[in-house]
Each structure stands twice: as structure tokens, then as C-alpha cells.
Give the backbone structure.
Amino acid sequence: MNNYKVYLAPLEGLADGPMRKVLCAHGGYDLCFSEFIRVTDLVVSPKTLIREIPEYENDCKTADGTPLRVQLLGDNPDTLAKSAVIACDMGAKSIDLNFGCPSRFVHHAGAMLLKEPELMHDIVQKVRDTLDEKYQLSVKIRLGFLDKSEAFDIVKAIAVDGVSEITVHCRTRKDLYKNEALDWSALSPLHECANGITLIANGNVNSLKDAKACEEITLCNHFMCGRGAFPVPNLGHVIKGVQKEYPIADILRTSLEVVEEFIATTRTEKTVMDRAKQFLGYARVHKTELNPFFKTFCRCTLVSDGVKLIEQQIAYEEQTVHEL
Ligand SMILES: Cc1cc2nc3c(=O)[nH]c(=O)nc-3n(C[C@H](O)[C@H](O)[C@H](O)COP(=O)(O)O)c2cc1C
């Protein structure tokens, strides 16, 4: 086992309560995040927090015991600070502020604020000043809005005393999720202006090999992993060097758990199948051997057909492994 820490990234529309439950049960993560909770000029309501974050019923941990950090997104320092207090009064142990979301549906918040380091500073300072110091505060950013050279001013602005961690998604807002734009090397110089705050490397850390390469370039030994959690459901354990990547049969078994989990939360048949397709759709990006199966699976509309197909594929995968 190495000394790496591995966090499951916040993934809006993807890693919600039921999906986090499955991903964390396998992942071996040190921490996971809620999807971003939007804060407007009104403070967040406890009802919203309870609805979005089922982990509140379990001391802000997933069922396997992985701690959850609540992520807030907004542009109003006052309501963000008050919302952070509410989230913590209800049982959260830590808060993350999102300055990385590039969604076009997010207007003056998330990565849009990377253009305004002064406002980012005011938000972080206000939240830190308002929140009891026993609660950790972290911040998630990208390297810049248009250009990586903006990263220094951004980090200086948010490296407020009392911030525990800054996650750097190593792309700019303009880069969205383009693979060729990922630049771990832009992170390493940021340690100097981070006021001693731990920097967490994020972006395409999908294996132990990636983590080692990323450590060498970024000088970080903390990683946040998002989309890689689907093709490698035990990614945290893999990056820590204690498990091998799941074989295809175990990825498929994990997809069955996704189905079970969404059925248990009384979602419609369509939603259950959509979420299983979403899980497998992300998994096949790196596990291309799943592609033919995925094509057939996508034609299933009934859960019973989907489950049968997954079970048949598991049997086929195991027989093939046996014959090798
Ligand atoms: C579908 C999707 C939803 C996301 N939602 C959030 C979010 O709610 N909050 C956030 O800070 N980042 C969000 N992100 C960004 C991820 O947390 C992460 O920074 C990004 O995916 C890069 O990491 P990866 O290469 O390991 O996936 C999202 C990314 C994706 C693909």
C-alpha cells in the first residue's frame, strides 16, 4: 500500500446518492462528494439537502462508511456562507466550493467565476469566516477560464487561511473535457502560491500507472477521480496498490448492483435502465471490450431483460476466462 489518498469526484447527474452507494462500496475512496448544490440569493433549504444527499441519514457517510463532503455552487458570499452553516448544522463535516463546473446552464457560478478571482476570494473568505473552524473547507477549480496562465491568480485568491484542500482539474473552462487539453504540468508550480494548502490533482487519473505519472508531474499524492470510477469500480483500491482492476465480469456485477440500488429507491423502470446504461456507457469508454454487449444492452427497455442479459454476459466472461 502506498501513501496515496483517492477521492471520488463530484459528478452531477451521474454520482447521485444511489450511484455513490455502489461506487463507494467498491471504490476504496477516502472521501466522496455530493453533486453540486446550487445556492442562489436564497439560502439552501434543509429539504433540498435531505433530498439530494441521502447520506445525511447515515452521519454523512455512504453505507460502506465513506465520508461525504457537501459541495455548494453559487456566486453570493452571504447565502453560500449561511448555506454552509446549515449543511454542517445538519451533520456535514466538511464543505467544498465549486468553481469548476463548465455547464452552460450555470450562468454566474462554477467555472464562470474563474474570470473573477476577487469574487472567488470574497466567497471563500466569507464562508471560512462564517463556518466554525472544526468544519473543513475545500475549493475545486480549473486552471483558468480561457488560459492556464490564470491559475496563479486564481489559487492566490482562494488560498485563504483555514482552507484545507484545493482540487485542481487540470483543464481550463474553455477546454471543457478535451483529452488533449489536459495539462498536469500546469499544477506543480501552483504549490508555491497555495499558502501551504494541500493540492489535489484531478483529470484522467484512471489507474495506478496514471496516478504514479501524475504524482511525478504534479508533485501531488492526493487524487480525485471521476469518470474512471466506472470502468474500474475498485479504482481507489487500485490506485492505492492493494487490488488489481476488476475483470469485465466484476464490472458487470457492479452494474447489477446499480440496477438493484435504483430499483430499491423506487425509480421508474425507464430510469433504472437509463442509469444502468449510463454506468456501462462510462465503463465502456476505457473497457472497449464491453462495446458489443453494450450495444445489445441499450436496446433493452425492461429491467428483467436487462438483468438477464447482464447475467448471461457474466457467465460468458467467466467461461472465456476459464478457457484461457
Ligand atoms: C457528468 C459530469 C458531472 C460533473 N459534475 C460535477 C459537479 O457536480 N461538481 C464538480 O465540481 N465537478 C463536476 N464534474 C467534474 C468532475 O468532478 C471532474 O473534475 C472531471 O470529470 C475530471 O475528472 P475525471 O477525468 O477523473 O473524470 C462533473 C463531470 C462530469 C463528466
In short: Strands lie at 5-8, 32-33, 37-39, 68-74, 94-99, 136-144, 163-172, 198-202, 222-225. The chain has a mean pLDDT of 97. The first strand starts at residue 5 and ends at 8. The chain has two domains: 5-239, 248-323.
